[in-house]
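Lecture notes, unit on binding sites. The following record was shown on slide 14. It pairs a sequence with heme C.
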Amino acid sequence: MADNDNDRLLDHSYDGIQEYDNPLPTWWKLIFYATIIVVPIYMWDPMGIGVGPGKAQAYQQELAAFNAAHPKAAAVYTDDQIAAFAKDPAKVEAGKAVWTAYCVACHRPDGGGQIGPNLTDDFWIHGGKPTEIMKTVVDGVLAKGMPNWGKVLKQDQVEGAVAYVQTLHGTNPANPKEPQGTKYPADSAAAPAAAAPAAVAEPAKKGN
Ligand code: HEC
């Protein structure tokens, strides 16, 4: 035993203190190596076990970031909310800028229609309810040449554009494109909460 110990005494000596070669036990080293292997998995964080926010929370954060950057699907708004956008001067003003920049090429500055349909009349291919208008703008109708603006515009821009489109309703521009689609109650865009039967009976006009 003594010889053995001498063998394991290393050669160098500092101020009379010698170093003893005392390797760590194998079980200890195995645990150590295991932790090294675990590190990349831990950092990648497959199950939210690491220092990161965890899968569920990370998903929520990504979703929030995505929602901030992209317009919400029309479904999250009610008709009343979207109709209210058209009554908000700041939104309509912002929407006019969006309209001028992105929409006039196909719908004409006055909304009378050209490549795209007339947006001032009572007839809608994809529905004239505020939520339906919003959906058409966000999702587009790619097959028919209406871009999906949800991919291009920010949420407030979409809200503005839809607000502005609603103000176009009933403006009767010169040389409009012929009506397309089905009629939606005349005053619906401005006041969708109004009772539908009464609205249908009313002539196609709107004061806004
Ligand atoms: C490249 C041409 C083009 C541009 C630019 C464009 N649209 Fe359209 N839009 C269309 C076409 C074409 C349709 C009709 C789609 C169909 O026939 O199904 C349409 C339909 C619509 C409709 C539905 C009309 C209905 O009758 O249901 C709305 C609302 C609308 N556009 C709003 C907008 C807004 C707001 C913008 C700008 C942000 C815009 N469009 C820009 C071509 C365009």
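Take-home: Confidence is low (pLDDT under 50) at residues 188-202, 204-208.
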